[in-house]
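User: My collaborator sent over this chain with a note saying "see what the structure looks like." That's all I know about it. Can you take a look?
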Amino acid sequence: MFTLRICLLSTYLMLTGLTHAVCAAAENDTLSTVLTSRSDEDRARDSARQPLETLRFFQIKPGMTIAEALPGGGWYTRILANYLGAEGTLYGVNYPDSLWHMLGYASPEFVAKRIAATKNFAAKVATFTDNGIKARGFTFDTVPNEVEGTVDRVLLIRALHNLNRFQQEAGTLAQALTATHAMLTKDGLVGVVQHRAPESASEAWANGSKGYLDETAVIALFEEAGFALVTQSEINANPMDQPSGEDSVWRLPPSLRGNYDDEQSQAMVAIGESDRMTLLFRKAL
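Assistant: Without extra context I'll predict from the sequence alone. Here is the result:
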């Protein structure tokens, strides 16, 4: 609310050329305040996830309508809900219900929990803030008609690998990109953060089953779906992450999957979280 009130002064500040600077400073202050007010547990991940730099790169502003793909445990949701404010809207967009069944490790209880999380998204957001932000959950294949053409930003943060993994058998990525395109306003943007495969990786290895995708391939897929690459960044890069063979992204923190002794775990912790591409696309067609 404070940020928006400051920006309403733009009519007067235009004559002095200070409008953009004042609004930008207010937005940065608001975001910084939101980030520093979180729990120690959430802030412990900041050095790997770079939320301040990432959300600035995606040009997120208070009052926007944002669709967050695969909100999961709510790490980014807690930031967005408090930053967007009462004038904002936050949608939690999950995989189609049918995709959860395709995951080899997915028990019936796990699937039921993930499906329920979509329906309970608004209630969950209400536990993160009392600022009155509007919230709603749905899946990529159940986007409400009234949402189409209204979303300022769609955030696909570590959400693409399973969509790509099951594209061949179920068309999941193509369907998600079509839904993303439909949700966006005419000048809407898509922010992508995704585990990045080494350039030497084969197409078969980098299909998402290990968590990694090829950056050039991701850009091509978005361009084919009617998006134009605006810019890309290395803010979430980690050159220490050099997977090979049967390595998966989940060997690294925070999962540390498959590391069965202290030496293995320490080696993975020393690498840190995954190397990630950070891309910004604009709805082009």
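A starting point for your reply to your collaborator: The mean pLDDT is 93.
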